[in-house]
Amino acid sequence: MVLIRTPKIWELSENEVTSETVYFNRRSFLKGLVGASIGASFFALTGCRASSSQTALEDSLKQPKIQFITTNPDFAVVDRPITEQDLAGRYNNFYEFGSTKNIWLKAQSLPTENWKVEVTGLVNKPKTYDLDDLKKSFPLEERIYRFRCVEAWSMVLPWVGFPMKELIKAVEPTSQAKFIRFSSYYDSKTIPGPTFHLGALPWPYQESLTIDEMANDLAFLALGIYGHDLPKQHGAPIRAVIPWKYGFKGAKSIVKIEFVEQQPATYWHTIVPNEYDFQANVNPTKPHPRWSQATEKFIGKGPGLSWEIKETLPYNGYGKYVASLYT
User: Fold this and answer.
1) Which of 10, 96, 266, 289 is the least crowded, having the fewest Cβ atoms under 10 Å away?
2) What is the mean pLDDT of residues 280-304?
3) Strand 206-210 relative to strand 116-121: parallel, antiparallel, unpaired?
4) Domain ranges across the chain
5) Tens-place pLDDT, residues 248-275
6) CATH superfamily of 3-326
7) Distance (Å, whole) CA 205 – CA 256
8) What local confidence, expressed as pLDDT, does residue 195 receive?
9) Whole-model pTM?
10) In contact, 234 and 251? CB cutoff 8 Å
11) 8 Å CB contact between 160 and 299
C-alpha cells in the first residue's frame, strides 16, 4: 500500500496534484517569509481562503435528505471504505464547467430549478418527468458502488436512485430500439466549458448504452448521494451511474433520454476515439494510449486528498453481472 499526501484543493493542477518538487520548493519559499510582515500577511490571507473555500464546499453539499430509503445489500463493497463526502465533493470531473478537478465551485452556477427529463424516441409511452415524478414513480434505494475514472483514479460512492430497467418497463421501448442516448444540460450562457482547445466541441454532452446494458441490474439513475439530493458538482439533479464502465459514460445533469435504432455519437468518443472507445468497460489489460490501466489511485479517507494504489479489476469488479453481455 502506498499513501501519497497531496496539497489542498486550490493547489491542484489541471489533471493531477502538485508534484513533490514543486510542493517542497513552495515550502522553502514560505520559510523565507517567516519573520517578515509580508509573511504574516500571506499566511493570514491563505488561512482565510482555506476557511472560505471549505465553508463554501460544505454549503454545496448541504442538500435535502432523501426520506425512506434503504441500502440494497446486494451491492456492498467490502474491500474498500466509502470515500469521504467532502473528498468526493471537491475532486471530480464536470467538463461543462472546466477541465480541472476542482470545478465544484463553478458547478454551483448550474440551474436546477423546475428540472424536466424527457424520455422519448422509439417507445410506446414517451413521457416527460419532473423530479417529483421520478421520486414517486420509481422505488428509490441506496447502492454502494465502485467508481472508476478512465484517468486511473477511483472512489466508492453511495448513490441513491433507481435501476434503469424500471424506466425501460415504464416507457415500453419498441423492438427497433437498440441504443439509448443520454443528453446533458447545456447552455453556453451559463456553462463556460473547458479551458483547453479541442476544436469545435460537440455540446451538449451525450453518452450512450445498448438497450441490453441499460436493462442490466447494475445500470442506475442516481438522484442522490450520501443520503441526500445530488449536489451540483455530482451532476444534479439526475445522472447515470454505470459502475462497470469508466466514469465518463455516466452522463450528468440529464435532460433527455432517447431510445434509438443506431449507435449514437458520444462526446469523448467523437473527440478522441483512439483514447475513449464507445464501450469503455473497465479493463486493466487495455492501457490508455498515455497511461496504464493496470492500477488505480483509490481516494478513500483523509486527512487531505490522499490515496492508495490498488489493482484495477476487470469490469471494475462487476464481471459476474456484466461479462455475459460481451461474449
Assistant:
1) 289
2) 93
3) unpaired
4) 3-326
5) 999 999 999 999 999 999 999 999 999 9
6) Oxidoreductase, molybdopterin-binding domain (3.90.420.10)
7) 11
8) 60
9) 0.84
10) no
11) no
